[in-house]
Amino acid sequence: NRFVPHHSGYPIFDLLILGMGTDGHVASIFSNQLNLFHVDASVCMSLNPHNHQQRITLSGTVINHAEERIFLITGSDKAKVLNDVFLKKDGYEQYPVSHVVKENTLWLLDTEAAKGLPESI
Q1: Cβ atoms within 10 A of the Cβ of 40, count?
Q2: Which of 28, 96, 109, 121 could form a disulfide with 46 if both were Cys (CB 3.0 to 4.6 A apart)?
Q3: Could you tell me the pTM of the whole model?
Q4: Cα(32)–Cα(110) distance, rounded to whole angstroms?
């Protein structure tokens, strides 16, 4: 509480720098744990569905309460998820990245990750 301001019980970070997995996960919030975007906790346990590794993650609530977010995303293996999310294709809500607040979020994509996206995005 001394170093990070709180509002309504949540830490409010000035800036979060995030990545995205090839399956659209953010932090350690995977598709089968979208409820972590709506929990009252600041930090949660999650389970990687691919290797069953337990992880500790910021909750989606904390991620979405940050003042600003920057995504750094590279690689052609991320292009399909980004296309589905940005173009709101059927089922895009299954990807955790689609649940991150878009306001005050900067997306830095390399050419391969941005492949197929309209230039206007």
Answers
A1: 9
A2: 28
A3: 0.92
A4: 27
pLDDT in tens, 44-67: 999 999 999 999 999 999 999 999
Spatial distance between the Cα atoms of 112 and 59, rounded to a whole number of angstroms: 29
Mean pLDDT of the chain: 95
Longest Cα separation, the chain: 45
Cα(116)–Cα(113) distance, rounded to whole angstroms?
Answer: 9
Q: From the DSSP assignment, how many helices (H) and strands (E) are in the chain? A: 2, 7
Say which residues have a Cβ less than 8 Å from residue 86's Cβ, sequence separation at least 6.
Answer: 117, 121
* Element (DSSP H or E) covering residue 105: strand 105-109
Beta-carbon contacts of residue 65 (< 8 Å; ≥ 6 apart): 7, 10, 11, 12, 13
